[in-house]
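User: Hi! Is it possible to get a structure for several chains at once, not just one? Here's what I have:
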Amino acid sequence: MTKIYLINPNELIHDFNEVVDKAQKIAIFTVGIELQKKEIEDLQEYIDNLSIQRKELATKNNGNDANLIYCFERLAMIIQSELKMLVSLKEDKMAIAWDILVDCQVHLGTVIRNYPFESDNLEHYLQRLHNYEKTLFPKMSFFSTGGFVKQSFCSICKKDYGSCDHIKGKLYNGELCTRNITEIELEEVSLVENPANKHCRVLHTEVNGIKTDALTLRKINTKS
Ligand SMILES: [Zn+2]
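Assistant: Yes, the chains can be modeled jointly so their relative placement is included. Here is the combined structure:
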């Protein structure tokens, strides 16, 4: 199915590629932290511009165009987050670095599902993020929660989720549909290797009353 665009997607892609080429040269661990911080700021300018364009297109109901801009805006944010992860690692903020990486993976998955063009490059990028996870962080244990959702609403139309036609994870007029859960009856929590949510991880281990951070292996001082 070919989508019709009112804006020129080639121009958008050209600009995006320029921005990304520059950012990717900086998103290497050995590059100076001050250059990486500067690049984070530069990307913000580009992201803000795209956000304005997306909202303008949405008010004109140019849905395909607004969705396309969402993808580029989100991709720029992911690269910006990758830089933030590198800065966090250098600043010894390991838990923050982990959370940023997990968010990048989730957001990139969303873009890949909604991207209207061939997405091989994005799949490679997802692999790069996976490689970060496997080489920079220890093998982690996660929790998975099972339960019964009692109340949730659709982020697009605010109706009860399931009572409208919107589907979570899909784009509608430049906005991502999410299922916002407001009430859940928790039934079980189990330890798993492949969780739905990698933020939900084991933070520390405890042996003989001594707590050890799962990421840094530092002893956690529990005296307060
Ligand atoms: Zn809805």
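Residues 142-220 form one domain. The radius of gyration is 20 Å.

User: Great, thank you!
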